[in-house]
Amino acid sequence: MPDLSRHDLAALARDAGLTVTGVTTPEPFDGDREYIADHIQRGHTGGMDWFTTQRAAESADPRTLHTTVQSIVSVGVPFWAGRHEPPDDGVLRGRIARYAWGRDYHRVLRRRMERLVESIETAVGRPVEARTLADTARAFDRAIARRSGAGWTGKNSMVIVPGHGSWVMLGELYLDIDLVPDLPLNRNCGRCAICIDRCPTGAIIEPYRIDAPRCISYLTIEERGPIDRALRPLTGDWVFGCDVCQEVCPYTQAAQPVDDADFAPATVENVFPSLELLATMDHDTYVAHFAGTAVTRAKRRGLARNAAVALGNSSNARAEPILVDMLAGHDEPLARGHAAWGLARLLGANACPVLERHQRTELDAYVRDEIHFALAEMLA
Length: 380
Description:
380 residues
């Protein structure tokens, strides 16, 4: 059976559309397991009940995911496509995190990794027992990338890849092939702490540690219920994810633009969506704009909730009728409740008449509670 050299593996990966590669062994990630157990114990994964110490312990041993694994290949696809600004068209717009502009990265990576596995099988002359993972199945994506030398960890906990910064989608191939492992990169952030200083919600509580319940990405995507009222003013116009800690990073600012059709947005709505669109869209409109992208993870109701917060944060009078209509008629109580907050945020005491009117007619207990809170805040 022919050997597969590191050079050949990199070439096959590039042919499959995977620019970044690194190889490591399937030895357990004991240090990461201990870190995550401590992270959970401190409460920094609050709201993610599925993220347990038992799950972390299983994930730390690659053989629990693929019993015949002999090598793990970390792969990545850079997706920085240059700077984009919202159009000057008079439309109130939110912002979507860059990784979600194009096609769902889970599908893109899996498809490309499957092509790579086929090429590896041809190169070694036999079927390969492989498992391809992309942010799924509990794999330690970032730990694998770090140990394989594909990148190193910044203080914002993101993997930084030379030449691309943290604008890289990560995936893993678990293979029953014994490959020569790469060495980790000897890199670090030095004294730089700009990502910590500039995080809007203070979610980077110390170098390399994120308090998930404070992170805008968690709040706008993973949080299924109401967004913490104290954090709503800090989320700005983000309606899906957040890129701030990556945008301010000097390494990431030096990334070279790439042209990849899979990560190119179909329309401006996939980059800077109209807040009115998010606030009013029905299911069919939601599917028409966002099907096949990672944005669907937030669900229609989550996007409407996020739009209400962004409208409240906009300081723009044109947001008022949109929020009034949301409060009066949105089919999701979660959206109506956040519209009440948004009106109070936008108008201050001038929102009292409309809030009081809806307080008398609203049937949902949660929405009434949001209205009551908004009125109480203004009276205080």
